[in-house]
């Protein structure tokens, strides 16, 4: 497995080897030794989520309060997605920057995003199944969202697909409104969380 840091600090792309034969393929989208070698700590697993989406569905942009935040390791079990990460950490040098990575069940690739980053995806096929390994359990009081169609973010959703979005996600504030309301994570609190994970506090 190869691990590549993305342009936003705390975001990584993991690419496992895929083994094809006459039965199909085999891959291991998450490998603890490769994760530790890349990031310097083990992934804490508190909850595993699974979503099934039809073509065009957009979920996100979601994030959680820090501390404790919620890191995610995202991979695709069926179908394919455009995965989008947004730096929502106030004070971060890449605040407001986004990055998009296409993931599919065929390539087995996965994305890790640290606490304080926003996450969303667009399903590119019917029956797309996405798995998320989460570092903390779901806490509805600490979960928030940003408008996935915020024109200031101009996120790179795949054109030509009719977007299917929940009412909650459509009603989410813009990045500017969330910033003005003080609702976004502070980068120094995120950094403290990262140091604690590495045992360097």
Structure in words:
The two termini are about 30 Å apart. The mean pLDDT is about 95. The chain has about 200 residues and is α+β, with helices and mostly antiparallel strands. The strands form three sheets. The protein has a six-stranded antiparallel beta sheet with strand order 1-2-10-7-12-5, with helices on one face. A five-stranded antiparallel beta sheet has the order 9-8-11-6-13, with no helix packed on it. A two-stranded antiparallel sheet has the order 3-4. It has one domain (about 1-20, about 30-200): Jelly Rolls. Helices cover about 15% and strands about 35% of the residues.
End-to-end C-alpha gap:
29 Å
Q: Provide the gyration radius in Å.
A: 16 Å
Q: What share of the residues lie within helices?
A: 10-25%
Order of helices and strands: EEEEHEEEEEEEEEHHH
What is this structure, in a nutshell?
The protein has 201 residues and is α+β, with helices and mostly antiparallel strands. 15% of the residues lie in helices and 36% in strands.
Task: Using brief descriptors, characterize the structure shown.
201 residues, Jelly Rolls, six-stranded antiparallel sheet, five-stranded antiparallel sheet
